[in-house]
Amino acid sequence: MTQLNINIDFEELTEAIMQSDMNMMMKSLAVTVLNAYMEVERDEFIQAQHYERNGQRLDYRNGYYERSFTLAVGKLRLKIPRTRSGEFSTHVFEQYQRKDQAFVLSLMEAVIQGVSTKKVTHIVEELCGESVSKSFVSNTMKRLDPEIEAFKSRSLTHSSFRYVYVDAMYIKVRENHHVVSKGVYIAQGVNQKNRREILGFKVSEEESYASWKQFFQELRERGLTQPRLIISDAHSGLKKAIQEIFTGAAWQRCTVHFLRNMIDQMPKKNNSEARKHLKKSSVRIPYKEPKKLVRNLKHACKEILVTKQYWRYSIKASMMAYNT
Q1: What keywords appear on the UniProt entry (predicted)?
Q2: pLDDT digit string, tens, across residues 14-31
């Protein structure tokens, strides 16, 4: 059985979700899981199913009341079950505060990998630390699966996307008792209202031209029109797939990847000042500022590198990397 373990910065993940249309889907999935679990809690408290008559019944259902609840991905409106005696109280809220990150990551894994019995069980266990019945898992899967599939296969004809960002996020996957790394291809578009949307994602064994091409073809089949500009890293297979599937679209190297590549070329010791100036140089600034930035960057690099000749060679090597 394959088990995913998303190993990325949680704050970056949350920010990306919040800035895209995936935020609504993540909140919808969270509402589905939380409401379903609270329903099970009430059933166990009452010790009777709907309309069931037995000698063990302790209370009766008495509808719901709404309560807002804030997650890492935003505010939810939950249906809180009530009982006639008023003695029932859900444990979801006190438990969730300690499980916020794990719960959101588990939902994200379900979106990427798809809904399965093991995945739903894992989501609930991350939330409350307890096992759940097979019937609960089955019923929850029936609710989650259509939402996820509808999102992943939805038409992209509702808007034209001027800019499309593509990237690969690497995750750890446990397969046959071994942990291996796999790539999750992600495409994010900027629509006419300057709002970002997650266009699609796909798990792949490796990052290659063939897998990127297949990913782009699937986006095209769902109605993605020709963007004006595609932003990505300089992976040769990725660039080739972009040129083939989006012929005529402009391409730009991702600034973040470019800066990371430059920093990787620098000596690891005492490079904090140079890193700071490099990051600052990528931000839009007034016309008179570049000379000052260059002077500061040059000074910082001189202090780090052993010789001036080594510094010049490193800059040349970085520029060569930029052109690849």
Answers
A1: DNA recombination, DNA-binding, Transposable element, Transposition
A2: 555 555 556 677 777 788
CB 184 within 8 A of CB 203: yes
Cα→Cα distances 133→37, 95, 182, Å:
11, 19, 31
| 184 Rama class: left (phi>0) / alpha (psi -120 to 50) / beta | beta
CB count within 10 Å of CB 250 equals 11
Q: String of b and e for 233-249 (b: at least 16 CB within 10 Å)?
A: bbbeebbebbeebbeee
Residue range 204-248, pLDDT digits in tens: 777 889 999 999 999 999 999 999 989 888 888 999 999 999 999
pLDDT band at 324 (very low <50, low <70, confident <90, very high): very low
Residue labelled with tokens 């599937």: 245
User: Using CA atoms, how far apart are residues 188 and 12, in angstroms rounded to an integer?
Assistant: 14
CA atoms of 72 and 110, how far apart (whole Å): 17
Query: What's the mean per-residue pLDDT of the chain?
Result: 73
Nearest Cα to Cα of residue 152 among 90, 116, 198: 198
User: Pick from 43, 39, 40: which is nearest to 79 by CA?
Assistant: 39
* Six token digits for residue 109: 């894994």
CA atoms within 13 A on the CB side of 271: 14
